[in-house]
Amino acid sequence: MILNPKFPLYLPGVKNGSNDNVSIIGANLREDVTTLGYFVSGNGGLEIKIQQSYPTKEYTAFSDILKKFIQDNQLENIKRFGMAVPGPVLNGRSRPERLGWNLDMEEYSRDFGFEKVDMLNDQEASAYGMGLLEDSDLEPIYTSGHLEKGNVAILAPGNGLGEAGYFFDGKYLRPFASEGGHSEFSPRTTVEVEFYQFLNNLYGIVSWENVLSKAGLFNIYRFLRDVKRHPEPEGLAEKLNNGNFVQELYKAAVEDEVLICKIALDTFLEFLAREANNLTLKLKATGGLLISGDIPQEIRAYIDKDKFYEKYKISDKMEEMLKNIPIYLIKQDQTALNGIALYTAYYQD
Question: pLDDT per residue over 215-230, tens digit each?
Answer without folding.
Answer: 999 999 999 999 999 9
